[in-house]
Specification:
Layout (H helix, E strand, L loop, with lengths): L12 H13 L1 H20 L5 H15 L6 E2 L14 H8 L4 H12 L1 H11 L9 H14 L2 H6 L6 H20 L3 H17 L4 H6 L11 H34 L8 H4 L19 H10 L17 H22 L11 H20 L10 H18 L4 H21 L16 E3 L2 H4 L4 E5 L16 E6 L8 H14 L3 E6 L1 H8 L6 H7 L4 E14 L23 E11 L10 H14 L12 E5 L3 E8 L4 E6 L2 E6 L7 E5 H6 L4 E4 L5 E4 L3
Parallel strand pairs: 1-4, 3-4, 3-5
Antiparallel strand pairs: 2-6, 5-7, 6-7, 8-9, 9-10, 10-11, 11-12, 13-14
Helix pairs in contact: 2-5, 2-6, 3-4, 6-7, 6-9, 6-17, 7-17, 9-10, 9-16, 9-17, 10-12, 15-17, 16-17, 17-18
Length: 689
């Protein structure tokens, strides 16, 4: 009954109380709250996350998304600094706020916990609803199994965008599975849009977008509807990708001639970057046998299998075994029953389960040969958890005691591996103040200089704290920049603009001397600067001190365990010195032509080991002690160098040993016959003529 003013009467207070009570006590609400609390508590227990990638490019990415850096910086955060940066804007804004680190990490963990909410919803759509309470129990078990993922746990509360973009991809899969229950174009559009956004923000999600199309093959209603939905899905997927990429792609196209720079540069051929493949081979199985065994090797507590640290995971081997058992049982019943061998009519839950299982294994087959890194498989790890629980309930539906025993065994193994076999990120204590703090000399705060960032890590996290008019170039990081070609022209234009206000920044001298046993601290910087006719002025140096950061990137050691990082070890010292012109700097040294010919022939003879081809030479040493020529192959994670007339190479992973490739003179003259590829650390065998 309406009031005199036409408004609806307010419901009785008792009705409101009842509604609030129902929402608060509903299984879905309780699961969501528990997932969020679990994520926040896990993040708190692991400590503040200050990873290599945070300092390498995460902070810079969020900064560059909000400030146009294209005219001031050049590869300031390495090639990763040019990937779509918008996923890192929330983290950067949180850093710039006055919130303490614990509050920032808790907010990040809350957002990341949504991946468990989506797992719960997905599980409810692949189980039959004819048995009371069973769907909710299965969904809760799937959520617990999804959480028991060492890769997921390691990233909670961190700056990584793997989980947040995985949430978009998983939400897209959830909508497509919902289409199998209730077909409708709006859900297809929503799913494609989410998957397009996920791919645009993180290109590694492309495999999940492609394999999601398999789900549309199971839409009820005939092939005309499926084809129509498929076309709608494809168009909207591209639209979502373009929508999130367009503003950034305009900048990339204008400055580099490649709208997705540095990706797909073999197609767009920007002169500023290699046209070789950017495929990262670190986690890709070397052989077909290794690929077939990968689900089982992932159960072992070994580093560099599917993640940098030991992160044993049972779910993929379990899912493979369960899939084979279920398929075998189905074939046995079909054949022994004497019934036709055609496919049976599927109920909605069976249709959804079959579609999800097939789409998962297609996704696995696409992901493994192009990545193999479980950080980029996060949405499928949740799908695997859902499938494992659903298949266990389906296989042992007539044997509840056996089913419960299998579930107990599975969870016991997974959680034991989390406790005993997993290495977690280095623990950094929580403190008041900022996520990290920088002490910058006053002279640097008032003057805009061109900084050359030198070393394997860009340390680009310092850039937002220096004057905005400053410029930054990472000379010798993951991608070497040389004085020739487009790289040299771009760097020389920056030098002319900023000269004589030039500075170099690199790691603490004590740390470098201890790690590399360098005879002179300034050699590292001069090795990178001299090809540009520059050198360090030792008389004008100062120190930038960063507190609250991770200073050691070590895999498989106790440094990742709780309480192992002291305040002194969470401090990074960066030396910065004035850079001056040096007419006597070595632009080209004796023996470089021979070294280049040897390297080029080595790359042509064994492209599997040395990708991308033709990187810039890194020159070390001097005429007195002898020169060392080094090339870094970022795609295959291999370094090759020439010293004392011999070529050697090494894969950059634990267990990667130095390999002898033969004499420099032999390779420079003409490449010998070789057998090469990946076997353990990588091998190259010289064959008889």
């Amino acid at each position: 009954m309406n009031r005199a003013d036409g408004s609806e009467p307010s419901p009785p207070r008792s009705t409101l109380n009842l509604l609030v009570r129902r929402v608060a006590t509903a299984p879905r609400g309780l699961v969501y709250v528990c997932c969020s609390l679990l994520a926040v508590l896990t993040s708190y227990h692991l400590g503040k996350a200050m990873s290599w990638d945070t300092m390498e490019y995460h902070v810079y990415a969020g900064f560059s998304a909000l400030h146009d850096r294209f005219h001031k910086d050049y590869f300031a955060a390495g090639p990763q600094g040019y990937f779509n940066p918008y996923a890192y804007v929330p983290f950067y804004l949180l850093l710039r706020s006055s919130l303490p680190p614990l509050a920032i990490a808790s907010i990040l963990a809350l957002v990341q916990s949504a991946i468990l909410w989506l797992t719960y919803e997905l599980s409810l759509r692949v189980v039959p609803h004819d048995t009371p309470n069973v769907p909710v129990v299965m969904a809760i078990l799937a959520v617990i199994f999804a959480f028991a993922n060492p890769v997921l746990i390691n990233e909670l509360g961190s700056s990584y965008s793997d989980i947040t973009t995985a949430e978009l991809a998983l939400a897209g899969w959830l909508l497509l599975v919902s289409v199998l229950w209730t077909p409708g174009p709006l859900r297809v559009i929503g799913a494609a849009l989410l998957l397009g956004l996920a791919t645009g923000l993180k290109p590694t999600n492309a495999v999940h977008a492609l394999s999601a199309a398999i789900l549309l093959l199971f839409v009820p209603g005939g092939w005309i509807r499926r084809l129509r939905y498929g076309a709608l899905f494809g168009v909207t997927l591209v639209a979502g990708f373009v929508l999130i990429n367009l503003p950034w792609s305009i900048h990339l196209e204008r400055h580099f001639g490649n709208p997705v720079f540095p990706l797909l540069n073999g197609l767009f051929r920007s002169p500023d970057y290699s046209t070789g493949s950017m495929l990262d081979h670190r986690f890709i199985p070397a052989t077909l046998g290794a690929a077939l065994l990968r689900p089982f090797t992932m159960v072992l507590p070994i580093s560099w299998i599917h993640f940098e640290m030991p992160a044993p995971d049972l779910r993929y081997a379990l899912l493979l075994v369960l899939s084979v058992l279920l398929l075998s049982r189905w074939l046995w019943r079909r054949l022994s029953g004497g019934r036709p061998s055609g496919l049976p009519t599927l109920h909605s839950s069976e249709r959804a389960l079959c579609a999800l299982g097939l789409a998962f294994w297609v996704d696995w087959a696409l992901w493994l040969p192009v990545s193999g890194n479980s950080r980029y498989f996060m949405p499928m790890a949740c799908v695997a958890a859902v499938l494992c629980i659903a298949l266990i309930f389906r296989l042992f539906s007539a044997q509840p005691a056996l089913r419960n025993g299998v579930l107990i065994a599975v969870f016991a193994v997974q959680f034991f591996q989390l406790y005993a076999g997993t290495e977690y990120r280095q623990y950094l204590p929580w403190h008041e103040g900022h996520w990290f703090s920088l002490s910058i000399p006053p002279s640097l705060e008032s003057q805009a200089d061109l900084y050359f960032l030198i070393g394997g890590q860009t340390n680009s996290f310092i850039i937002p704290e220096l004057p905005r008019a400053s410029g930054f170039v990472n000379l010798s990081g993951q991608y070497e920049l040389g004085p020739a070609g487009a790289n040299g022209r771009h760097i020389e234009s920056l030098i002319r603009r900023y000269a004589p206000r030039l500075r170099a920044v690199w790691r603490d001298p004590a740390a470098i001397a201890a790690a590399q046993a360098r005879p002179s601290f300034f050699d590292a910087a001069n090795d990178a600067l001299e090809p540009f006719g520059l050198r360090v002025d030792p008389g004008h140096c100062s120190m930038i001190v960063a507190r609250g950061v991770d200073v050691i990137f070590s895999i498989g050691t106790a440094q990742h365990r709780r309480g192992s990082a002291s305040a002194s070890r969470s401090t990074k010292r960066l030396m910065t010195c004035r850079v001056i012109r040096d007419p006597a700097a070595r632009i080209r040294v004796p023996g470089q032509r021979t070294a280049d010919a040897a390297f080029d022939h080595l790359e042509d003879a064994c492209p599997a080991l040395f990708q991308p081809r033709r990187p810039v030479d890194v020159l070390m040493g001097d005429e007195k002690s002898g020169y060392i020529f080094l090339r870094k192959y970022t795609g295959s994670a291999v370094h090759a160098w020439i010293a004392r007339g011999t070529i050697r190479f090494q894969k950059l992973a634990p267990g990667g040993r130095e390999e002898d490739a033969g004499s420099e003179r032999m390779w420079a003259r003409s490449p010998p016959r070789v057998s090469c590829g990946w076997q353990g650390a990588g091998f190259l065998k010289i064959l008889p003529p």
